[in-house]
């Protein structure tokens, strides 16, 4: 007769003072970070023209103005989207061949190009913005949207360069050797092995560059020469008339753009590794 198994003893973990203090500290940090965001979001609901908290006469009219009816804000939003998408695509296109060259052979040319793409992001934005201002004045492009797109692409190309490089490093060399042994050409290997495995990292770099471009102010301020206004510039210009609820809607647009972009990266990419986590310890 087989004896019945003994019931397992339940292990009760008692919270330690250090553990409770750690959770309280994390909760305080969460409140400290989230409180300003909640205040801004609530201030956008004010019915008047003043940004007050708690909001008075709550309404969604400011959202309608920002996204639909107010030509100044809708033009700024449209221009910000054009510059962000175009510059992010250009930055990704510039970063791909450089990252691929560094991964394949790391020649002097590829190292120099990689350093050139990474340098603008390491410089203080005001230094880079002043330099670009002089450059576009000399080239006759100051105050044009094209200059803003090129400037943002140069500033943020380091982001897709980093993410694509991480993606290329994750490609198994054994797969490439096996494909070459079976007679696959370099083009076939790139199309069937390398490109599919690096698409999430390429998209991550694109979204990182897009978010930073959408929020960029200093470089845009220098290269625009007051010829046009993006959302960031329009918020700055609106400060002359005081804090208005429409400015809070602009801040919410920045938050939504960041949440959407990073949510897509977390869903389809390897966000912990892109943030610097060691894959061997996960």
From TrEMBL:
Which family is annotated? Belongs to the binding-protein-dependent transport system permease family.
Q: What is this protein called?
A: Putative spermidine/putrescine transport system permease protein
Can you give the residue ranges of the ABC transmembrane type-1 domain?
77-265
| CDD domains, A to Z | TM_PBP2
Q: Where in the cell is it found?
A: Cell inner membrane; Cell membrane
Q: What is its main location?
A: membrane
What are the record keywords, sorted?
Cell inner membrane, Cell membrane, Membrane, Transmembrane, Transmembrane helix, Transport
- Segments spanning the bilayer are 20-45, 79-103, 115-142, 217-236, 248-269
Task: Give the membrane topology.
Answer: Multi-pass membrane protein
A Gene Ontology biological process noted in the UniProt record is:
transmembrane transport
Species the sequence originates in: Albimonas donghaensis
Highest taxon listed in the record's lineage: Bacteria
The UniProt entry, under Gene3D superfamilies, shows: MetI-like (1.10.3720.10)
Q: Kindly name one Pfam family recorded for this protein.
A: BPD_transp_1
Q: Does the keyword Transmembrane helix apply?
A: yes
Does the keyword section mention Electron transport? no
GO CC terms in record: plasma membrane
Which InterPro entries does the UniProt entry name for this protein? Answer: MetI-like (IPR000515), MetI-like_sf (IPR035906)
